[in-house]
Structure formats: structure tokens, C-alpha cells
Amino acid sequence: LFQGDLGPFNPGLPVEVPVWLAINLKQRQKCRLIPPEWMDVEKLEEIRDQERKEDTFTPMPSPYYMELTKLLLNYASDNIPKADEIRTLVKDTWDTRIAKLRLSADSFVRRQEAHAKLDNLTLMEINTTGTFLTQALDHMYKLRTNLQPGEGAHSQDF
Amino acid sequence: MSEAYFPVGPGLGLEENFLSLDDILMSQEKLPGRAESTLPRLAFALGQGAGTGDSIPEGSKLEIPLWLAKGLHDSKRRIVSVELPKIYKEAWRTVFSADANVVDLHKMGPYYYGFGSQLLNFDNPENPEIAQTILQTFISRFRRIMDSSQNAYNEDTSALVARLDELERALFRAGQRGLNDFQCWEKGQASQITASSLVQNYGKRKFTDTDG
Fold first, then answer.
1. Which intervals hold domain DNA replication complex GINS protein PSF3 N-terminal (chain B) (predicted)?
2. Smallest Cα distance from B199 to chain A, Å
């Protein structure tokens, strides 16, 4: 269980609280949420354009950008200016990143490399393709061990 | 959203997984072969000849399932010798290396990868090329499976999986599961509590009174 102190809560003064508490208070209509400073149209446009330009992954402002966007836009869209544009921008960035991930997975498989390093990926993206990729790599590994019938083979010559 | 149980997957190497249903079905696939010696009174069992007393003469061509071929094949090859089915032969191997994506692997024997891996058990001078072809086919078809499985949400996927063999279909399903889970999360269904699939089956059976 989490433990800690929060506050003091004075009306009209901004306070930092964990997201779950913020959402809860907002649902009870006891507070107004202030969006994080990266959740702003120009900043997100910059990130999206950079993502489209670069071949590698850009560092995202928060490792939980997808989750935060979803929560804040679902529960507190009235506190976030231009919420719809933000939703579209984040979705565009997500799509670009997923496409890059797939491209890199494909070239990894084609060249049969043993090791790959991908910076700046968030957990959400990894989980979306993770199961598929690990299963496919498993199969590939087994097919590759077929090529060397060295120690695996069981031959009995009497 | 998570599975109630995990089925045992295919072995996919030189060894099969004993408990895997996929492997059991795969080893039922037939293999062309030749009887090296006379097989007395087995004509009926192997599908040739009407009476139970007939024997198979030496040198006759047979189609035997893989499990039988593996059992009867020993290093001196006295009982049966096996030939490669045509899709693992030279002609088809060049088709695969030209463009593996157009081949209908389901029609070619729905267990192309598994069966091919098992074929490497029989001594055959072409084994390295067969192993290499199987691997390369998998690699070239990988991209298409990935793209189609991750982009088809809530659609009828029968057209997409029609040309995949069983191994690829399992991969496709894994990709779809990932996609569905993500969409579920996005819609907010991930935080709703739903009955597990095991428990839903319990409800269909009525509890009878145990005490009289």
C-alpha cells in the first residue's frame, strides 16, 4: 500500500498530487486539473514532426505519455485547451512510432541479427508488439538451430 | 482477456513436443516412400490390397504418415526409405526463394515449417538446403504477417489467414491479441471487471441438491 502525506490543500492554489488522486477528485468535482506542460499543441506538433523526420525514436516527454493522455483527455478534457487537437497529435505520434518499431523489427528479422537496441521506447509500445515479436523470434531461433544438426542430433549407430 | 489455460505449442525443431496437438496433427501428414523389403500382411494396414493376408512387395511406392515413417526408418534403411514431398524439392525451393509471399502455404500442407523440420531427421543430402529454405521463407513472410495481424481490427480475417500455414496462423492470432488488447485498453474496457471464461461455463450447469 502507498503511504504518504499530501497537501496542504488551499482553495485556488495549485498542488501536486498523484494522478490517481487527481482523477478521483476531478470525478467528485472537487478540483480542476492543470495539464502537464508538454501537453500543449505546439510542443506536441514539434515532437510529432521530429518523430516523422528522424529514423530513431525521439525521447518522449514522459514515459507514460499514452496513459496520461488517455486519462486526462477522458476525465478532464474541459480543463485542457484544444483537447481534440492534442488527441490527434498524440495519436499521430503514436502511429509513427509504431510504424518505426515494425520497420525495425522487420529489418532485425531479415538480417537475422542477434541483438538490437532501441532507445526511447515506452512500455506501451513495447507491449503492443512484444508478444508477437517474441513468439516470431522463438520460431526463428528454432528454425535456425535446424541448420546446425551438431549437438542436437540424436543418432544411434550400432 | 488472459487465457484460462495455455495449450502446448509445437516443438518445431528436430524433436516434436509430445503433448502438442499441433505436432500430433502434423505428424499425421503423409510422406511418399518406398518399401525396401517385403512387408508381410501389412497391405491392409497401409491402405493397399483388400485382404488382411496380402503383403506389400519390395520396392512398391507407399504414402505413409510421418509418425510411421519416423518409427520405421533406421540408419540401415531396411524397412522403408522416404522421399521428399515435392514442396521441399529443388523446384519448389526456387519458387520460395524468388518470392515466398505468393505461395499458399495452407494448401501446400498446413504444417510446412513443422513438417519440414521433421524431414531433417531423415538422412538426406539436401537437408542443409531444405533447412535454409524453410528459414528464409519464414523471414520473408514475417513482414506481411506482422502488418496484416496488427492492422486488421474487428474485421473478417479469413481472407488474410487463408494462405498461411498453422505456425503462421498462431503468430497471426498472437498479433491480433496484442491489437485487441490495446484497443480494449484504449476504450477503457481494461478497467472493467468481466467474468472469466472458466466461470462463465460453470453457470450453464445447474447445481442439483446434494442433500436429500
1. 20-72
2. 26
pTM, 2 dp: 0.78
Report pLDDT digits (tens) over A38-72.
Answer: 888 898 999 999 999 988 888 888 888 888 888 88
Q: Quick check: A102 contacting B, CB < 8 Å?
A: yes
State the sign of the Cα–Cα–Cα–Cα dihedral B100, B104, B106, B112. negative
Cα angle at A109 between A105 and A113, to 5 degrees?
A: 105
B149 touching A, CB under 8 A?
Answer: yes
**Counting Cβ atoms within 10 Å, is residue A9 exposed (0-12), middle (13-18) or buried (19+)?**
exposed
Classify B61 as helix, strand or coil.
strand
Assigned C-alpha cell, A13: 492554489
Angle (CA) B145 B11 A103, round 5°? 25
E strand or H helix at B194, and its extent?
none
Q: Name, in order, each residue with C-beta under 8 angstroms of A56's C-beta and a sequence gap of 6 or more.
A: A119, A120
CA of A46, closest CA in chain B: separation in Å? 24
**Contact with chain A for residue B132, Cβ under 8 A:** yes
Is there a contact between B117 and A156 if contact means CB atoms under 8 Å apart?
no
Residue B167, all three cell numbers: 505456425
User: Which of A136, A156, A147, A142 is closest to B120 using CA atoms?
Assistant: A147
Instruction: Tell me whether residues A155 and B75 touch, CB distance under 8 A.
Output: yes
A128 three-class SS: helix
Cell of B111: 504444417
**Which residues 6+ apart lie within 8 Å of B153 measured at CB?**
B179, B180, B183
Query: Is-contact B65 B28, C-beta < 8 A?
Result: yes
ω before A8 within 30° of 0 (cis)? yes
Contact between B33 and B69 under an 8 Å Cβ cutoff? The reply is: yes
Q: Vertex B194, ends B193 and B196: CA angle to 5°?
A: 125
Beta strands in B36-180 (DSSP E): 61-65, 80-82
pLDDT tens for residues B27-58? 888 888 888 877 777 776 666 665 666 777 77
A3/A86 Cα distance (integer angstroms): 33
